[in-house]
Amino acid sequence: MQPVINIKNIKKTYIMGTVEVNALVDLSVQIHKNEYVAIMGPSGSGKSTLMNIIGCLDTPTSGLYEFNGINVSEMNDNELAKIRNKEIGFVFQTFNLLARSNALHNVELPLIYAGMKKTVRHELAEEALRHVKLEDRMHHKPNELSGGQRQRVAIARALVTKPSIILADEPTGNLDSKTGVEIMGLFNELHAQGNTIILVTHEEDIARHAHRVIRVRDGMVEHDGPVENRVLPGVHA
Amino acid sequence: MRLADWGYEIKEGLAISFHAIRANKMRSVLTTLGIVIGIVSVTLMGTAIEGLSRAFNETVSKIGADVLYVQKFPWFDGGDNWWKYRNRKNIDLRQYKMVRDQTTLAAAVTPTAFAMAPIKYRSLSSDGIFVIGANDQYATTFGLNMEMGRFFSQAESNGDRPVVVLGYVVAEKLFPSESPLGKNVKVGTHTFRVVGVVAKQGSFLGMDLDNRVVIPITNFLQKFSNNRRGLSLNVKAADINDLENTKEELRGILRKSRGVKPGVEDDFAINQQEMFIQTFNAIGGVVAGIGLFITALSLFVGAIGIMNIMFVSVTERTKEIGIRKAIGAKRSTILFQFLIESAVLSLIGGLIGIVISYPLSLLINQILPTSMPLSVVAIAIFISLLVGVISGFLPANRASKMDPVEALRYE
After folding, report:
1. Chain B residues with beta carbon closer than 8 angstroms to that of A92
2. Would you state the pLDDT for residue B45?
């Protein structure tokens, strides 16, 4: 089966002043549909760079990146924007909701950029919010919601376009542990429903929810294999 | 991109800009101040220029600036050639008829001559009245309106009828309590029947334009026979913008009728009120020039203000731009969003400016006959939109080109 993400020998070099920094050195990875992958690594490992490239926020300096068989490594800004809009659902550590818009509008936003009709948009956004059990908070603004609720809105926003992957960057980093567990429960559920989830984290506890872990160090894959001591869905440690 | 997409983008852009402007009310209002001042000056200048041109047109017809005066003496010349001018052949009715029959560019032609005479009705009399001999075209030529009655007709003029049209002041003096129409008055020693009274004209350069009477020219020549002076031919151009061509045509007809040989200089003068036209044009030009300068300056300051605040806004919202890009906003979408915001900001300034300048235009109306023309309002709205788009372009462009990774990292 064709992988959703096929990364082959990519390299990413930044120029910091006069010094070249190799954030990624010859990294290859494949992720298939309905996988639940944790990408781990200490800060400076290249983990964030990898996530940005996977999320089509950035392109590699060299190497191949195919998304659903389409080469995205040489796409321009607008083409990348389209891929991000349709194929990738982002969940960020700091939620990254628009402060002045209510939950419903935040969830609708990707659909607006997809050029969808208002009635259809509303329906899909409401459905996504129901999915994360926030149907009674639709008209609240982010500052009227708790951290967990905000992250649920962000997850609804990621889900609403029915993307090929959900890319979560430290999704529990700004939450207390109890809420964090709830959010991880939601991710487990989404995975069980057939979504492909990529989790970027440095916390072993969080990574243990995934089925596969990719450890990155010095811009290379250090380890790639199944998760041991996996937290089973529904079992809240 | 499909048209419908633009629709969504405009709607979303408008919603975002209203949110943003409402969130920073004070800042937005202060920012628009430059545009407000610019638009106030645009509309007031437009109104003033409109008023000046109306005033000009009114004055033109009052003083006859679209009228060419064919005479022996030129108006604006020193006294050295006085004898030369004096000894020129008189302008007579034959020449008048040639001009009348041959002209194609004139709207009206009237010969005139004048004398001073007393005027009497029963026991009331008035001295030193300006008696003008003219034909029926006189009223058209000088744009006279009638207070009552009518001007004498062509038949009356050609048939030497003893009829007279009174100036407003003359009628007031001689007929304080009755209608002058149909009454017989004595002009000098001759009896004339009053057929009309000219509406009040006021004075021009100290001359009372209402203290005069007009009688048919042939009648005048017989009864006030100071024929030595000859006539003045007054030719009203059909179009004031065509005054020069009318003048040339007139010159040709006159040279022929007066038998001036080719190569010999004109033995007549075609005078015109160009001095006044020039003065008016100069005033209009100065007002327009100053106005344009002030307007351009204040709009420029306004544009800089908006550009500045848009740069601030873009920087403040770096994170938001990053979020929007992450979930699929294209460069053009972001560009459009900020362009709309700055256009809306500027438009608000423009609308405030229009609201402020309306009462001010009523003040101008006290001095000049004017009202704020709708075209000026439309232009003001267009200009404020344009200023908004232009001044918003650089900030919007910066926003659209932000790297999503860095924008997301911005705190």
Report:
1. 408
2. 83
In 3-state terms, what secondary structure has residue B165? strand
Flag whether residue B3 sits within 8 Å of chain A, measured between CB atoms.
Answer: no
Interface size, chain A vs chain B, as Cβ–Cβ contacts under 8 Å: 63
Cβ contact B405–A57 (<8 Å): yes
Q: Across the interface, which of A78, A97, A100 has its CB nearest the CB of B331?
A: A78
Q: What average pLDDT does the segment B101-105 reach?
A: 89
Q: Which residue, among A167, A143, A139, has the nearest Cα to A54 in the 3D structure?
A: A167
Contacts of B313 in chain A (CB under 8 A): none
Name the strand (E) or helix (H) holding B109.
strand B106-121
- Range A19-44 average pLDDT: 92
Give me the residue from A58, A77, A112 closest to B405, CB to CB: A58
Give me the residue from B319, B327, B405 closest to A113, CB to CB. B327
Among candidates A52, A58, A90 on the partner chain, residue whose Cβ is nearest the Cβ of B327: A90
Q: Are B114 and B49 in the same domain?
A: no
Q: How far is A234 from chain B (nearest CA, A)?
A: 30
SS3 B297: helix
Question: Which residue in this structure is represented by tokens 């009399």?
Answer: B125
- Where a domain ends, among B271, B304, B326? B271
Question: Is A232 in a helix, a strand, or coil?
Answer: coil
Domain hosting B336: range is: 3-59+278-409
Same domain, B19 and B154: no
CA–CA separation, B110 and B240 (whole Å): 17
Radius of gyration of chain A (CA): 18
Which token pair is B94?
């034959």
Nearest Cα of chain A lies from the Cα of B354 at a distance, in angstroms, of 31
Q: Are B330 and B243 found together in one domain?
A: no
Residues B131 and B260 in one domain: yes
Instruction: Report the domain count for chain B.
Output: 2
Give the residues across from A88 on adjacent strands: A165
**Nearest CA to B399 among B329, B348, B345?**
B329
Query: B256 and B128: one domain?
Result: yes
Closest Cα in chain B, distance from residue A112 (Å): 7
pTM of the model: 0.70
Residue B213 and residue B293 in one domain: no
Of A58, A77, A157, the CB nearest to B327: A157
Q: Which of A86-90, A229-233, B29-33 has the highest mean pLDDT?
A: A86-90
Looking at the fold, whether B138 and B52 belong to one and the same domain comes out as no
Q: Is the pLDDT of residue A128 over 90?
A: yes
The pLDDT value given to residue B226: 60
Query: CB distance from B8 to chain A under 8 Å?
Result: yes
| Domain end point (choices B222, B240, B271) | B271
Nearest residue in chain B measured CA to CA from A118: B8
Here the tokens at position A62 are 């060299």
Q: Is B330 on the interface with A (CB under 8 A)?
A: yes
Q: Tell me, what's the pLDDT at A237? A: 45
pLDDT tens, position by position, A37-61: 999 998 889 999 999 999 999 999 9
**Distance to chain A for B22, nearest Cα, Å:** 11
C-alpha distance from B404 to closest chain A C-alpha (Å): 6
Q: Is the CA virtual torsion B54, B60, B61, B63 positive or negative?
A: positive
Q: Is B404 on the interface with A (CB under 8 A)?
A: yes
Closest to B236 measured CA to CA, from B62, B65, B59? B65
C-alpha closest to that of A35 among A54, A9, A13: A54
Same domain, B102 and B155: yes
Kindly state the percentage of chain B with pLDDT values over 70. 91
